[in-house]
């Protein structure tokens, strides 16, 4: 501990000051030379010395000017020591322009006041903060039903209703591409490695299942037909009413206001039956999901369909109390044929037709010890619900909801581009994203 006596080791004549400190990275002496050789730093970092056992001597003289200089040096060292005992939360800040459901409408009156880190830029905690949080998690386990946006929820947990630190912006933590001129002052950048892991998955290897109901046949289905339906080779609409003009297929499951578990499990069973073409991948979406199938083809090139893959935007339920992760349905749920087979063979089923399908599937995956694989390119909400800087370095795959937006305009702005024509020979050149 730092001594409570501000004059420890201070010679009366003003010649010497002796100070004892925590583990600190100090400037070397009072000569203005603050750097140390690599050999010196190696010795320091590998000796594991506790600097509380080291006495720092500031050389001075009895003249009043030199005494003042020594006191200033002492004060500077004490400030450094104090800063290393503080709690620091550092990162590239994101903020909400308007309150959003994915952040539980936090700070509704002024959502931009709360900053949270962009994980793509990296973020940092000081050791004192890490130690306190580790003790807090042990002594007071975090109780939260839903984990939706981890970066926002981590920031809220650290902030602790004002009792903990705010996020401090660090300009050197960046999301600039690594070959960008702006990246020369960045400690972190985004990679320009090719997005493609191989050739994009053939569109004939993807079967698309759209969940709808009669009341949305004239409202939502036309949006799909005007936007992304033309990019699908195998696509079926599943409804509570067979409408040959679309066409829709009635799976014999009554429509429910929420949940749709019965309908989704009927889709899984149909996928492995002889009623539809045999494909490697199943994509299940809502009728108000907007999606880029060419971008999905590129992403799926990184995954092996012979493995049980369940891919999309991952949420969590009761994770700190032994809960489970799940792929949220609105952003699109992607399953390999192997995953569907294991889910159905396990005997997993809905406890009711209106149970939440994505959460029931998450429970099944958890019981089977199969991972729910997260991609930040799938989005359960609208573009307006995400921080602008978060979307700025993405090439998104999906968004969800038609509420208070023009869905066709949203698709044209965020999901429609020339990538479908260049997927095999140039998509990686324009993509700025994490897989």
Automatic annotation (TrEMBL):
Keywords: Glycosyltransferase, Membrane, Signal, Signal-anchor, Transferase, Transmembrane, Transmembrane helix. Belongs to the glycosyltransferase 31 family. It comes from the Eukaryota. The keyword Iron-sulfur does not apply. It is found in: Endomembrane system; Membrane. Residues 200-405 form the Fringe-like glycosyltransferase domain. GO terms for molecular function: glycosyltransferase activity. Transmembrane segments: none annotated. Residues 1-29 form the signal peptide. This is Beta 3-glucosyltransferase a. One of its GO terms (cellular component) is membrane. It is a single-pass membrane protein; Single-pass type II membrane protein.
